[in-house]
Structure formats: structure tokens, C-alpha cells
Design a protein that fits this description.
The complex is a heterodimer of chains A (116) and B (114).
Chain A lengths: L2 E3 L4 E5 L4 E3 L2 E3 L5 E8 L6 E7 L7 E2 L2 E6 L4 E6 L8 E9 L8 E2 L3 E6 L1
Chain B lengths: L4 E3 L2 E4 L5 E6 L6 E7 L5 E8 L2 E5 L6 E5 L5 E5 L8 E8 L9 E2 L3 E5 L1
Parallel strand pairs in B: 2-11
Antiparallel strand pairs in B: 1-3, 3-8, 4-5, 4-9, 5-6, 7-8, 9-10, 9-11
The chains are: A mainly beta (116), B mainly beta (114).
Chain lengths: 116, 114
């Protein structure tokens, strides 16, 4: 069974600095997606960034980028120039690519605190 | 706004009762997923429907059931409620076989069982 592990329950960063959130996963599949979702205090789940496992290039979305290490089964999220609005829970999630079962498998989350 | 709607936003009920949570997917999305998020925890997948048919089941209790109707909206029924069922229940939808099959999440229904 696939599992996703986020080993940092909480991280803090000074505003405008860079922070990296860690995620590791376990799967025997070779074709899958990995996601980072943000959950602000409003509780809405917001997709931050997505990585296809077959792509070697790391995904980037403005200030957000990932370091995808397929062999190591590692998928970290880097947030550059941190802003107060980045404060939220961040969840790493995994999903098979070729399957009728498209369920997302989630990590336990990392609470990100931004210090002004 | 993701385009996925969930009602009600909040629900407070007593143990032993039954409630129904409703979800309307984004226009054009055929698949609906239900997730449960207990306090300060990650999400747990409950069940998936695709075009009216159950497609996958996760950690869903026998006291819980769901269905997807011809107009593609979905309902999650929770019965014989226990204190431990208090959680945030999310609905998500996706096209399936679309671009990345991204799941779009609704705002959630917060269920409190007293």
C-alpha cells in the first residue's frame, strides 16, 4: 500500500525568507502524481503544485517549487520570499496515474508559521 | 472558488442521529470523491463515484453510505453518529481522463456530534 510521510509537524520562517517542507512516500508504482495542497485557516483545500512522476523536470509555480527525487521517493516543497498569506497547513499527497482508483493518499501535514 | 459546492457548511447533531451531506461537482466533472478530515489530521479517503457508479472505497464505515445521482450531485449519509465522527467532510470532483485529473475541493462540511 502507498503511504505518504511528512516528518515536520510544524515549521516557521521569517517573512521574505525561504523555507522547505519535506515529504517522502512509498510506492511500488512507477507512474503517479504528487501534489502539494495548502489549507489556510478557512479550511479550503487549495492545490499549490503538481508533479508527474514521469517528468524529470521539477515543477514550479511562481514562488513555489519542488525538489522531486524519484529514486529516493522524496518530494519537498520550497517556498521562496515567504509571505504572511503563506501561513497554512501544507499537505503532500500521492495518486496513481493509471488506475480507476484515483483516490489521493495524504500525509499528516506540516503547519507553516510565518514570522513578520 | 473551486466550483464545487457543499451543503450545509456546518452541522451540529447528537449521537445516534443521521445526517446527509450534499455535494455538487464542478460543471463537466463526472467523478466525485469524499474525504474525512479529523481535527488537525490529514485527509482520509472515504469513497469515489464516477458517473453514478461506485468506483473505489476507502476507510468508510458501514454506518456511512453515499450515492451519486443522475445529475451528478452526490450525497454522503452518516447514521448512528458517534462523537468520533465529528470532523470536516470534503467533497472533491474531477473530470477523469482529463488534464492531470486534478481534484477540486469544496469548502467542506463541518460536522459536530454532541
Amino acid at each position: 500500500a502507498q503511504t505518504v510521510t511528512q516528518s515536520q509537524p510544524e515549521m516557521s520562517v521569517q517573512e521574505a525568507e525561504t523555507v522547505t517542507l519535506s515529504c517522502t512516500y512509498d510506492t511500488s508504482e512507477s507512474d503517479y502524481y504528487l501534489f502539494w495542497y495548502k489549507q489556510p485557516p478557512s479550511r479550503q483545500m487549495i492545490l499549490v503544485i503538481r508533479q508527474e512522476a514521469y517528468k524529470q523536470q521539477n515543477a514550479t509555480e511562481n514562488r513555489f517549487s519542488v525538489n522531486f527525487q524519484k529514486a529516493a521517493k522524496s518530494f519537498s516543497l520550497k517556498i521562496s520570499d515567504s509571505q504572511l498569506g503563506d501561513a497554512a497547513m501544507y499537505f503532500c499527497a500521492y495518486r496513481r496515474r493509471r488506475d480507476s482508483n484515483y483516490q489521493l493518499i495524504w500525509g499528516a501535514g506540516t503547519k507553516l508559521i510565518i514570522k513578520p | 472558488d473551486s466550483g464545487v459546492t457543499q451543503t450545509p457548511k456546518h452541522l451540529i447533531t447528537a449521537t445516534g442521529q443521521r445526517v446527509t451531506l450534499r455535494c455538487s461537482p464542478r460543471s463537466g466533472d463526472l467523478s466525485v470523491y469524499w474525504y474525512q478530515q479529523s481535527l488537525d489530521q490529514g485527509l482520509q479517503f472515504l469513497i469515489q463515484y464516477y458517473n453514478g457508479e461506485e468506483r473505489a472505497k476507502g476507510n468508510i464505515l458501514e454506518r456511512f453510505s453515499a450515492q451519486q445521482f443522475p445529475d451528478l450531485h452526490s450525497e454522503l449519509n452518516l447514521s448512528s453518529l458517534e462523537l468520533g465522527d465529528s470532523a470536516l467532510y470534503f467533497c472533491a470532483s474531477s473530470v477523469i481522463h482529463g488534464m492531470g485529473d486534478e481534484q477540486f475541493f469544496g469548502p467542506g462540511t463541518r460536522l459536530t456530534v454532541l
